Amino acid sequence: MIQTKQPAEDDFDKLALQYAEQLYRLAFARVGNAADAEDIVQETYLKAFKNFPTFRHETSVKNWLSKILVNSIRDHFRKSGRAVETVKFDDSAELDERVSEPGADELLCHCEIHPELMKALSSLPEQLLAPLLLREIDDASYEEIAQILDVPKGTVMSRLFRARSLLRKKLTGARDAQEGLTRAKPKL
Question: What is the CA angle 117-168-137, rounded to 5?
Fold first, then answer.
């Protein structure tokens, strides 16, 4: 008799895989491209699977996975800061056109997040951005965010307030600058 999965694997699949889409949206909102978001989610699930035997079942699986994801995103940015620069090869005549087309998941995420918002989000400091994304994209409660980030609930509330204020300033400043350019154009 051949058994394909161990009971622990079945438990992990049942408990953890249901959050893949939420984790992907959170990762995509932070890194801004589908390939990196997929890699981060895959790395998150790999770390979670390896550590599943030590998982305390009194904590939320969603919060546990979100915490691993936030740490994986931090690792991603640390690694990308040390990445060796490469020369970009652009010979589109040899490439199949379908390869360069964005996938449905990337199109969906780009439709959900306006480019100006992505730019403003990426300019926020990590300590303000992480709670904001967990709250607005993952719909996590203040208590869940506090647990994921290992900070007090009051700190979460303060960081959310500061993140929203900074984001508002950046977005209204960009809008005002755009309106200024529109008004400054000479009429013919």
Answer: 50
pTM of the model: 0.68
CATH of domain 7-73+103-113: 1.10.1740.10
pLDDT score of 56 more than 90: no
| CATH 3.30.70.20 is the classification of domain 115-188 | no
